[in-house]
Design a protein that fits this description.
Blueprint: H1 3-37, H2 43-47, E1 50-51, E2 56-57, H3 60-91, H4 96-109, H5 113-127, H6 134-159, H7 162-170, H8 175-204, H9 207-212, H10 232-241, H11 248-278
Antiparallel strand pairs: 1-2
Helix pairs in contact: 1-11, 3-6, 3-8, 4-6, 5-6, 6-8, 7-8, 8-11, 10-11
Length: 282
């Protein structure tokens, strides 16, 4: 074996070891949650209302609240985020204004989520008078996810070869027709990546909903966008830290449901993304 092959093999071994060190803690945490929570995870646990101070019953309001909040974030953040990315990538000129916008987007993506929660409390809950509601929580989470969606969508649009735009213009299409029918479909896999990351972050956040929407204990389903609701991240925090005598199985089963929900959303979105990636023409 030559020295070059030996160095290459040692490099592969080192990279494999680093990969294992990254994956092993994740597998340990997931395995621990499954081992401790699978026994308490029953069908009744998923479809019943909580009672007895949340020590028994189910977590249906928290599941429904998380799904409703995530849907609200998608309705608000996806059109605004993709629209902003289209403007920055296809229409905006490279000047101080657009550079300032991109810098602001990068800075917004690094702001702690608790700051977004306080911002949502001041703007949506108090100033606009939405109160502690699903609407206030969804708008707060949407603002928090916009930097991720805008950045990844813009990069996906810029990655589409310029020849696609040139061919569209040479055939008599307008700029918007080229973007709508050629550029956006080709960039869709990358856009979906940003949407997935944003929605998954929104589904698992606790601090923003703590100030804007989450109820400590609400054994009923929401009826309007102006209702409070329970949510899985905050519910998990509450039963783990604020309720004495809470069975450990209930805590881990709740964590397992949240984990399964996030992974299912990721899996479905990844399948859709792979489908459009196979249809891409470059």
């Amino acid at each position: 074996m030559t020295q070059r092959h030996l160095i290459q093999r040692l490099g592969f071994i080192f990279l494999g070891l680093v990969g294992f060190l990254v994956v092993a803690p994740i597998l340990f945490v997931v395995g621990s949650i499954i081992w401790r929570g699978a026994g308490a995870l029953t069908w009744r646990f998923l479809i019943e209302m909580p009672h007895n101070g949340m020590k028994s019953g189910g977590i249906l309001p928290a599941i429904v609240g998380t799904l409703v909040l995530t849907a609200g974030v998608a309705i608000v953040a996806i059109p605004v985020g993709v629209g902003a990315a289209v403007y920055l990538s296809e229409y905006a000129t490279d000047n101080w204004f657009t550079r300032a916008i991109r810098l602001a987007i990068v800075n917004l993506s690094s702001i702690p989520s608790v700051v977004y929660g306080l911002f949502g409390l001041g703007l949506f809950v108090l100033f606009l008078g939405f109160g502690t509601s699903i609407l206030a929580g969804a708008l707060t989470l949407a603002i928090m996810t916009l930097p991720v969606i805008i950045s990844t969508a813009e990069e996906a649009l810029r990655a589409v070869p310029a020849e696609f735009r040139t061919v569209s213009a040479s055939l008599g299409g307008t700029k918007w027709q080229g973007i709508r029918y050629i550029v956006l479909p080709q960039a869709l896999p990358g856009i979906l990546t940003g949407v997935i990351l944003g929605l998954l972050r929104a589904a698992g956040e606790t601090a923003p909903i703590l100030f804007t929407v989450a109820a400590f204990y609400l054994p009923r389903l929401p009826h309007s966008p102006f209702d409070e609701t329970m949510a899985l991240p905050y519910h998990l925090y509450v039963i783990s830290t604020q309720v004495p005598g809470m069975p450990e199985g209930v805590q881990n089963a709740t964590a397992l449901v949240l984990l399964a929900l996030v992974l299912t959303m990721n899996l479905v979105a990844s399948i859709i993304r792979s489908y459009f990636r196979r249809r891409r023409e470059w």
